[in-house]
Amino acid sequence: RIPFAFLEDIHSRFVKTYGRAVHSALPYAMNDEFSRVLSQQMDYYSNDPNADRINRMRGEMNQ
């Protein structure tokens, strides 16, 4: 679940940020700017327990 949530999140952020500019961009043109987003989101989905919505909901239901 988490890997797919990560990929969906990255895809939507990338499209929202760059839109149609990707069709005419040079290779790696967005790398410097978007690498920060990738790094932040990798950290979030790897370490934050809230990244897994199902487990978070289960925890809330058990309280």
UniProtKB/TrEMBL annotation:
UniProt entry tagged with the keyword Membrane: yes
GO cellular component, one term: endomembrane system
Swiss-Prot/TrEMBL keywords: Membrane
Topology versus the membrane: Single-pass type IV membrane protein
Residues in Longin domain copies: 1-38
Localization per Swiss-Prot or TrEMBL: Endomembrane system
Pfam families attached to this UniProt entry: Longin
Protein's name in the database: Longin domain-containing protein
Biological classification of the source: Eukaryota, Viridiplantae, Streptophyta, Embryophyta, Tracheophyta
